């Protein structure tokens, strides 16, 4: 491991990329402590003791939302805009054409995504400022607009920061910003456990049990995240002019967890929305219905798991076009041994994808609901160790390690990972 790290430090380009990424992390963490003007942050912090949508957003922002800093909305509007653009790419023919045009088409889609981020960010900021007007020192249209513009500017700056990390640093900048926000909560969790231990609320074996569960979950996540079904593909030989092409074998890697962390985010948002809205409505029956969907209740847990399975299939179907995959394979003279090109190949790929997506969706559901039982098993309260955070940390860490590995292998026979 030390020799691998020395390989990174010896390569000037890679060393500069790593240092630039770390410097951008410092900028991000500094911004989470800059408060939004005209807001009483103490009032807002009381809302995060309850299970609502703000708690999920606070996880992505690295605690910036509970402090109501300029980065309170984090990069969430950009994620929403990107997901919307992915869905529109399937529906709108113009966007689908751009997606097939290579770099120029992607630049157009990226530009629209940026505009969508600013628009969605401003709408979300206005709604957040109005919904939290009880914490505004001088509530009024001017104060709400000032807060909304400040929050939108913070999100836009984070979007720019992420693009700079992608261009000049290591890994995907947007993912790394979310990663930094999630990882920044780990010291708070360790401090909470230390307080419980010194107060005698828990014992050493509780902490050891918590660590054991965490390690098992991490190994489980890595195994599924790296898991894939490899479909063998044979390319026929073709003679073009005086040259012969094809005649080689390859495979199509179909990932078990094709949808990533998106299904958990969708399901969490849908279930937490009634609880969050009910906080602003003082009607008894509304409070009763919201109680049914409170975090950790049997009804909420069951619906949560079913929604994750549904959104896994939905998002996989939207992002992975089996028909286009089979058609492109046919155009280039490729075929799956034992199957005719065209519709039989598409039907086979669809059956395989349906089966492995079931395994991926069940995996996501388990990872998402296990944290509900960790507090009861370990007796450690107030320390969040959720599937969303775990998937983000493991997924981003693996992708970043692969990029470092590729850069190191360009200059050394031995890479960063063994």
TrEMBL record:
Pfam families listed in its UniProt record: SecY (PF00344)
Membrane topology category: Multi-pass membrane protein
Entry's Gene Ontology cellular component terms: plasma membrane
Membrane-crossing residue ranges in chain numbering: 65-91, 112-132, 144-162, 174-197, 203-224, 261-281, 301-322, 356-377, 383-401
Keywords assigned by UniProt, alphabetized: Cell membrane, Membrane, Protein transport, Translocation, Transmembrane, Transmembrane helix, Transport
Alphabetized SUPFAM superfamilies for the sequence: Preprotein translocase SecY subunit (SSF103491)
Alphabetized NCBIfam families for the sequence: 3a0501s007 (TIGR00967)
Subunit note: Component of the Sec protein translocase complex. Heterotrimer consisting of SecY, SecE and SecG subunits. The heterotrimers can form oligomers, although 1 heterotrimer is thought to be able to translocate proteins. Interacts with the ribosome. Interacts with SecDF, and other proteins may be involved. Interacts with SecA.
Listed name of the protein: Protein translocase subunit SecY
Species of provenance: Propionispora vibrioides
High-level lineage: Bacteria, Bacillati, Bacillota, Negativicutes, Selenomonadales
């Amino acid at each position: 491991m030390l020799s691998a790290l020395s390989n990174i430090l010896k390569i000037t380009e890679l060393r500069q990329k790593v240092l630039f990424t770390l410097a951008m992390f410092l900028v991000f963490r500094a911004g989470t402590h800059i408060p939004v003007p005209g807001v009483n942050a103490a009032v807002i912090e009381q809302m995060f003791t309850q299970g609502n949508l703000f708690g999920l957003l606070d996880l992505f922002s690295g605690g910036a939302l509970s402090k109501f800093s300029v980065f309170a909305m984090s990069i969430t509007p950009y994620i929403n805009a990107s997901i919307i653009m992915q869905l529109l790419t399937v529906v709108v023919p113009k966007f689908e054409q751009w997606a097939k045009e290579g770099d120029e088409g992607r630049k157009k889609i990226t530009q629209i995504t940026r505009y969508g981020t600013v628009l969605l960010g401003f709408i979300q900021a206005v709604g957040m400022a109005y919904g939290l007007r009880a914490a505004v020192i001088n509530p009024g249209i001017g104060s709400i607009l000032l807060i909304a513009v400040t929050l939108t500017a913070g999100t836009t700056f984070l979007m720019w920061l992420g693009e700079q990390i992608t261009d000049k640093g290591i890994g995907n900048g947007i993912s790394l910003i979310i990663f930094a926000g999630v990882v920044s909560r780990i010291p708070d969790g360790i401090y909470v456990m230390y307080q419980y231990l010194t107060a005698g609320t828990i014992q050493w074996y509780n902490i050891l049990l918590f660590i054991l569960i965490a390690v098992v979950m991490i190994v489980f996540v890595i195994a599924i995240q790296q898991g894939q079904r490899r479909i063998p593909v044979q390319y026929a030989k073709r003679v073009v002019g005086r040259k012969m092409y094809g005649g080689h074998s390859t495979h199509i890697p179909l990932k078990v967890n094709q949808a990533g962390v998106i299904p958990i985010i969708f399901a969490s948002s849908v279930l937490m929305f009634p609880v969050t809205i009910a906080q602003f409505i003082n009607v008894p029956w509304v409070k009763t219905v919201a109680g049914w969907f409170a975090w950790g209740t049997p009804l909420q847990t069951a619906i949560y798991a079913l929604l994750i399975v549904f959104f896994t299939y939905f998002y996989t179907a939207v992002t992975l076009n089996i028909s286009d995959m089979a058609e492109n394979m046919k155009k280039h003279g490729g075929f799956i041994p034992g199957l005719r090109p065209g519709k039989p190949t598409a039907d086979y790929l669809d059956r395989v994808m349906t089966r492995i997506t079931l395994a991926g969706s069940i995996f996501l559901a388990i990872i998402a609901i296990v944290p509900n039982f960790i507090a009861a098993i370990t007796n450690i309260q107030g320390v969040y160790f959720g599937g969303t955070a775990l998937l983000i940390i493991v997924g981003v860490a693996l992708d970043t390690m692969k990029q470092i590995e590729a850069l190191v292998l360009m200059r050394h026979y031995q890479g960063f990972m063994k």
